[in-house]
């Protein structure tokens, strides 16, 4: 049955991603766990592999359009790739020792990560909507021509990359917040840079998850079949749809999902 329902559900998730920019992993992984009763370890690994194709396709498009900052992508990737592989290494260690239930740990981690990403994004959206004149203290802009700027960028990439390796969540959302806070990229380059660094990060993360043996290709292929055209359609609808009401609704859903993930662990 999931061969029919999974592409359909993934199509709607793809529309939401293309329409709002909210990360697919925050929606697809909980969908696999709650709707299709997939064990969390398999859901995370399969989603990482499935998300890679969407990000790679998007990054190639932005590369052709020159709507990305190559230097930012490079230095973030230098941290995020080894960071994500270390996250996968932690999963290997947990599985090998057998002292803890991997699925239970992943449920908690997924819930916490989705809740954190949702809260940060929701706070940002509320401030933009109701307090547009409110100016938060600006964080220092990172200069990649300096050793300090490069070191801090690599460190940020490593920390966030580790969380992506562990949970599959935040390859786009958390990095987007970093790009806004520390690099002040314009809107076009923000999206292109975010997608491109996520493509590199997920490419290596998916290779790591393949070594875990928890990737289920009978889930990956239907997700690809539904989500890729969904993202393309969502991007088209994005030009006419009201963004803020949609984001409020999706954030509310994500908060409920994250709390359910934590409570079920």
TrEMBL record:
Membrane-topology annotation of the record: Multi-pass membrane protein
Keyword set includes Cell membrane: yes
Superkingdom of origin organism: Bacteria
Keyword Transmembrane helix: yes
Places the protein is found: Cell membrane; Membrane
Keywords per UniProt: Cell membrane, Membrane, Transmembrane, Transmembrane helix
Pfam families: TauE
Spans traversing the lipid bilayer: 12-36, 75-94, 106-131, 151-183, 195-213, 245-263
InterPro entries: TM_pro_TauE-like (IPR002781), TSUP/Inactive_protease-like (IPR051598)
GO cellular-component term (any): plasma membrane
Assigned protein family: Belongs to the 4-toluene sulfonate uptake permease (TSUP) (TC 2.A.102) family.
Protein name as it appears in the record: Probable membrane transporter protein
Lineage of the organism: Bacteria, Bacillati, Cyanobacteriota, Cyanophyceae, Nostocales
């Amino acid at each position: 049955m999931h061969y029919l329902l999974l592409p359909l559900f993934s199509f709607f998730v793809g529309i939401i991603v293309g329409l709002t920019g909210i990360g697919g992993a925050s929606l697809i992984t909980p969908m696999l766990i709650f709707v299709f009763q997939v064990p969390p370890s398999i859901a995370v690994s399969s989603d990482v592999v499935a998300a890679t194709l969407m990000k790679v396709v998007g990054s190639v498009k932005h590369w052709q359009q020159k709507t990305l900052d190559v230097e930012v992508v490079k230095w973030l990737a230098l941290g995020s790739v080894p960071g994500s592989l270390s996250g996968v290494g932690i999963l290997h260690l947990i599985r090998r020792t057998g002292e803890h239930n991997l699925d239970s740990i992943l449920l908690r981690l997924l819930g916490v990560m989705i809740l954190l990403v949702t809260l940060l994004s929701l706070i940002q959206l509320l401030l933009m909507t109701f307090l547009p004149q409110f100016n938060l203290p600006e964080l220092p802009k990172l200069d990649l021509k300096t050793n300090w700027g490069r070191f801090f960028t690599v460190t940020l990439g490593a920390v966030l990359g580790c969380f992506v390796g562990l949970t599959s969540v935040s390859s786009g959302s958390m990095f987007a917040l970093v790009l806004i806070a520390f690099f002040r990229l314009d809107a076009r380059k923000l999206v292109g840079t975010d997608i491109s660094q996520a493509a590199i990060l997920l490419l290596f993360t998916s290779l790591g998850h393949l070594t875990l043996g928890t990737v289920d290709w009978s889930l990956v292929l239907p997700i690809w079949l539904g989500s890729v055209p969904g993202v393309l359609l969502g991007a088209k609808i994005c030009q006419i749809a009201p963004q803020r009401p949609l984001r409020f609704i999706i954030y509310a859903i994500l908060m409920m999902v994250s709390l359910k993930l934590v409570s079920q662990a």
